[in-house]
From TrEMBL:
InterPro entries: Trp_synth_b-like (IPR006316), Trp_synth_beta/beta-like (IPR023026), TrpB-like_PALP (IPR001926), TrpB-like_PALP_sf (IPR036052)
Functional description taken from the UniProt entry: The beta subunit is responsible for the synthesis of L-tryptophan from indole and L-serine.
GO MF annotations in UniProt: L-serine hydro-lyase (adding indole, L-tryptophan-forming) activity; pyridoxal phosphate binding; tryptophan synthase activity
Keyword Amino-acid biosynthesis: yes
Subunit structure: Tetramer of two alpha and two beta chains.
Species of origin: Merdimmobilis hominis
SUPFAM superfamilies, A to Z: Tryptophan synthase beta subunit-like PLP-dependent enzymes
A GO cellular component entry from the record: cytoplasm
Catalytic activity: (1S,2R)-1-C-(indol-3-yl)glycerol 3-phosphate + L-serine = D-glyceraldehyde 3-phosphate + L-tryptophan + H2O
Encoding gene per record: trpB
Protein origin, superkingdom: Bacteria
Entry keywords, A to Z: Amino-acid biosynthesis, Aromatic amino acid biosynthesis, Lyase, Pyridoxal phosphate, Tryptophan biosynthesis
Pathway(s) per entry: Amino-acid biosynthesis; L-tryptophan biosynthesis; L-tryptophan from chorismate: step 5/5
Protein name from the UniProt record: Tryptophan synthase beta chain
Limits of the Tryptophan synthase beta chain-like PALP domain: 81-419
Amino acid sequence: MFNEAIPYKIYLEENEMPKAWYNLRADMKNKPAPLLNPATQKPMTKEELRPVFCDALIDQELDDTTAYFPIPEEIRSFYQMYRPSPLVRAYFLEKKLGTPAKIYYKFEGNNTSGSHKLNSAIAQAYYAKQQGLKGVTTETGAGQWGTALSMACSYFDLDCQVYMVKVSYEQKPFRREVMRTYGASVTPSPSMSTEVGRKILEAHPGTTGSLGCAISEAVEMANKQEGYRYVLGSVLNQVMLHQSVIGLETKAALDKYGITPDIIIGCAGGGSNLGGLIAPFMGEKLRGEKDYRFIAVEPASCPSFTRGTFAYDFCDTGAVCPLAKMYTLGSNFIPSANHAGGLRYHGMSPVLSQLYHDGLMEATSVVQTDVFEAAELFARVEGILPAPESSHAIRVAIDEALKCKETGEEKTIVFGLTGTGYFDMFAYEKFHDGKMSDYIPTDEEIAESVSTLPVVNE
Ligand SMILES: *Cc1c(COP(=O)(O)O)cnc(C)c1O
């Protein structure tokens, strides 16, 4: 049944792994807008960012012109533990759908943290160590980022303090224990250990927390402790840069077999896996060398791209972070209970936001019952149990393949399979029991949270 010319899994050799990250911003004509200091409304300077972020990461964050950043040897060694990741030709899925489309997925779930987030976690921990720091603080929603960071910190012997959204802390005790196994300390957020946590708890007693609120707590703790910095798992330019390893490997694997994709699809929470996957392909498009369709997939319950506003906003609920210009639902937006925790963020990467604003990529939203239907079908035919986040991309890849079935077109579709769903079995249970709902925010709800956007004179 397999096409003999193309194997089920395309693996690169270890010595074919990328030696440099690709910075997509270098090829963007319209650069992403700079982070602003909320007090002065001026672009954040290196000095202003220094108390929060590691020095080397600030350089990466602010650099819109250097196209390639060499990946330090120690990071490449760590990557070797779980990379290169396979690019899989979804022969079984194609057959099940009866589509002439050719479907490929880049599988990033083959490490203990279970997602692509380790690609940036190890880089951020490395630079923190290089700077002689004692440790880092961060937030985690569903727990993938916290897990990845705790693995990275234990490798470099750094202290790791994780603020975990309370609802996940309670619902995902196993995630918490994985983090503790790697030596991290995990605090449910909002907590009484920070000023901003106490304030939020006072205003909303009984709240089960949000990502934006956990970010505020983690930033405050980084500021308060000598030798600590804050690290973030998505949204920022530096994270997009590290995640380019996904796209670079994908492109190298496709090039080996002379395959050119027509459509590239990824789920979008803060935008890091999608930004990384599309980076080298978008670079070609920006330089006028090739054309591709890029599709971001988001949950209908948290539709930053498809129903958000392109404006400066806070990255966190407590408004302690710089302002970023992005597609946003407002930093006070609390999405309804959706099981793709990694996609419940109010904003979107400034890089992807600019590209979307300039019409260089598309976005679509899907409801979670349709997502789980696709997840289950995928698991049954391709074997991998996908994360709910990743399954958003699966849903749209299937839909595009079914369109090809109608038209007879043999399009090549590539999507990012960002992770596995072993810690999401409560969500699968709800789906199987028919108890999963598809809440979609009303226009009024979105208008209300967007009305609180800060006023910025651009
Ligand atoms: C965090 C996460 C995402 C979403 O984050 P992005 O920054 O948008 O990539 C997607 N899939 C998985 C498995 C995740 O853990």
